[in-house]
From TrEMBL, chains A, B:
This is Xanthan biosynthesis protein XanB. It catalyses: alpha-D-mannose 1-phosphate + GTP + H(+) = GDP-alpha-D-mannose + diphosphate. Residues 349-462 form the Mannose-6-phosphate isomerase type II C-terminal domain. CDD domains: cupin_PMI_typeII_C, GDP-M1P_Guanylyltransferase. Residues 291-344 form the MannoseP isomerase/GMP-like beta-helix domain. The keyword Transmembrane helix does not apply.
Length: 468, 468
């Protein structure tokens, strides 16, 4: 049997789970259903049957998140294919297929969104193995979810009669409620999960047949890609020129070799807060709580607390409390969360895309207090990491180390600071912060100045390629 | 006509408006309906007709809050009578009466809770003047609110027929809904607002008649009181020995000179979040918003945001977001907020009584970040104020001034720091922080140590009498 190559599609910037999921740190990187992030959980699910390092297709902006999260679950040498712009799934999977074939063999691609929940991993793995032989023989196999409700939020796949892997009769768009009910009653209709199994070369062949323009642009972007450690940076100009399309439209609905294997694997796309409530553990009153939640006489609600949330007499609510924003939504209206995000975007507010804690390749910073002419940040620097050599024209900085060891460059001086030691970076001083230790470095930075924006920075040298 | 002496009862520790109102900084000190705090608004309402400095009866713990808030609305030389323990309204008003008569004249006391809203201040002042002559002639006048709904949350006053000030037939307890409806239909029943007008001496006479024990204990506590600037500190032992009772039970229900003047003055006791919603300005969908609130398709809700609150598709909700706690309650269930506070208390959690920002006589501190072995506070020191000379046995402190001027004492050194300057207080160093300037001093304090509790403090000298 051919090698099974996992392809984890991680390019989403889903805001349907705002304020927890935001563009700069979206859903697939969050631990929404358990300790692992969704990406990590997706990898752990397939690792037993597809042990080769995965190919991850991610947004350029998320490269360090993806790399770090994979490292934390023991993945070495993944190929992280970076999209300079989003072009939907057809080009993303084409790039992954090209990457997979670069090893010289002819693997089966197991293509998985990295932000879904699958409760029954064993059933899923068994399904993949059951579909392998059809895929090896040239079928483009999709996994169709056996529906348990007349869902109107998913596309459906109408399958021909039979057992196991069978021909797709047609893909159908999201139905209205009556149609969805009819699909459920008639049987033979399955939810389109966006999970696929096929030979890499076969997918590229079919793409060539139906959308040669996509294949050509993606191939150009892939061949001109810059390789940088685990990152495969698709060429920006070439990839931007690629038409944007989904694998469903570009290939699956057109090909004659589309097959479907119906599966019942505890699948949930976690596409909304109500979906997350469904897959979360609930107490006897139907409440799913995460964090410090006090509930008085409340039912059927989801609450996520970073500090403390008290619910009194409520039902069918979603309450999500983060550092800088709180969402309170009726559980059957959570699709309108996108209207909130749209409003924040149109007002150019940071909460649309950024969390208060902002992740960087070297660690993170969190703006814990802001006042007139000053700002206080908690800065975390990973072991061995170093920030760029930089200066600011309008702010000075006080640094107080509270954990670990800092190596500080300040103009011509280089010195180390330990917990409970501090230093001062005057306006204009060239400075750099490093963590020479093996534990996390944490420090409190008090910025002082008449302008405190992140864009007041001159970078002279940066190990992450951000200088100049 | 006798002098009108305002008595503002400010001893409440109401937690029905948690998390905004907490024991250490309760409702009467909050700007719940406008720019002024409830106490300030109460004073401004009566100042035109009772211009003598008010007598304020407050909890010992709130003395600096009360003094500072009165100063901010231009009150000079108030008498702030401090209760070492709460003993309900009969003793509180007795102490105020004794204080009022200490000036040597025979004033009319206008006794007002300091945490109610009165929308029509003119009508209220006119009512007070209309009641003055009866009060001068010896009546104990209470102001009865003309009911506009069958409220079950208030006691009622049944008045005899007539116009203007009339005899009270009886006080009745909070009724059930049917009884309340009957009161409304029959007329002649008014809500008991807790506002009174009477001669100071007359109240004391009636109290002597019905509850000599209360009068005696209060007199003893008043005569042994320590006077300290504007503060009249009732003697702790004597006042603690006083029976606890309300003016209604102790005097009004027993006296033969109880009168009532029905008033229609836009009164609201703001006794719950739903009451606050009622008195707040609402938009066309019945929403009352305070702060940064985004509302999508929501109705009839109250939202208070310190950061950002987004409401989606909700109705009849109360959402209150503070630094360290969020309340989400159905508007018709807000009386159960007390259950949340009770739970917090039984778990000995600070959110039961304290806000994250804690007020002190010299200013305030706000714990903006806490981590393993460190804590970051934003400290504000009022112009001219000075903290105690103190030391800590288990923590060091870094101070970075971000606004104003600090005078720092550190062991044998005294020096000044300006914005963007810092210093370090080692473990064990005797230190003091002062604001020698005329503007607010703000500084960021980073504490570092293995124990960071507020009780790790040795005070050597304190201008607020807290040393030793």
């Amino acid at each position: 049997m051919a090698r099974l190559q996992a392809v984890l599609l991680s390019g989403g910037s889903g805001t349907r789970l705002w304020p927890l999921s935001r563009e700069a740190y979206p859903k697939q990187f969050l631990p929404l259903a358990g300790e692992d992030s969704m990406l990590q959980a997706t990898w752990r699910r397939v690792a037993p049957i597809a042990p080769s390092p995965p190919i991850v297709v991610a947004n350029e902006e998320h490269r360090f998140l993806a790399a770090e999260q994979l490292r934390l679950v023991g993945v070495s040498d993944p190929a992280i294919v970076l999209e300079p712009v989003g072009r939907n799934t057809a080009p993303a999977i084409a790039a992954a297929a090209l990457q997979a074939m670069a090893a010289g063999d002819e693997p089966l691609l197991l293509v998985l969104p990295s932000d879904h929940v699958v409760r029954d991993a064993d059933a899923f793995c068994a399904a993949v193995q059951a579909a392998s032989s059809a895929a090896e023989q040239g079928a483009l196999v999709t996994f169709g979810i056996v529906p348990n409700a007349p869902e109107t939020g998913f596309g459906y796949i109408h399958a021909s009669d039979g057992e196991g892997v069978r021909k797709v009769l047609r893909f159908v768009e999201k139905p209205d409620t009556d149609t969805a009910q009819r699909y459920l009653d008639e049987g033979g209709y399955y939810w389109n999960s966006g999970m696929f199994l096929f030979r890499a070369s076969r997918y590229l062949d079919e793409l060539r047949k139906f959308r040669p323009d996509i294949l050509e642009a993606t191939t150009r972007a892939f061949e001109s890609a810059k390789r940088d450690g685990d990152f495969v940076r698709l060429d920006k100009e070439a990839f931007a020129a690629c038409p944007s399309d989904s694998i469903d439209y570009a290939v699956m609905e057109k090909t004659e070799v589309a097959c479907v294997l119906p599966v019942d694997i505890g699948w949930n796309d976690v596409g909304s807060w109500s979906a997350l409530w469904e897959v979360s553990e609930q107490d006897g009153e139907g409440n799913a709580h995460h964090g410090d939640v006090i509930s008085v006489d409340s039912r059927d609600s989801y609450a996520y607390a970073q500090r403390l949330v008290a619910l009194v007499g409520v039902d069918n609510l979603v309450v999500v409390e983060t550092d800088d924003a709180v969402l309170v939504a009726r559980k059957d209206r959570v699709q309108q969360v996108k209207d909130v995000v749209a409003k924040l975007k149109s007002d150019r507010r940071s909460q649309a895309a950024l969390h208060r804690e902002v992740h960087r390749p070297w660690g993170s910073y969190d703006s814990v207090d802001v006042g007139d002419g000053f700002q206080v940040k908690r800065i975390k620097v990973k072991p061995g990491a170093r920030l760029s050599l930089q200066s600011h024209t309008r702010r000075a900085e006080h640094w107080i180390v509270v954990r670990g060891t800092a190596r500080v460059t300040r103009d011509n001086d280089v010195f180390e600071l330990f917990a409970n030691q501090s230093t001062y970076i005057p306006i204009g001083a060239k400075h750099r912060l490093e963590n020479p230790g093996t534990d996390m470095l944490e420090l409190i930075e008090v910025q002082s100045g008449d302008y405190l924006g992140e864009d007041d920075i001159v970078r002279y040298d940066d190990v992450y390629g951000r200088a100049g």
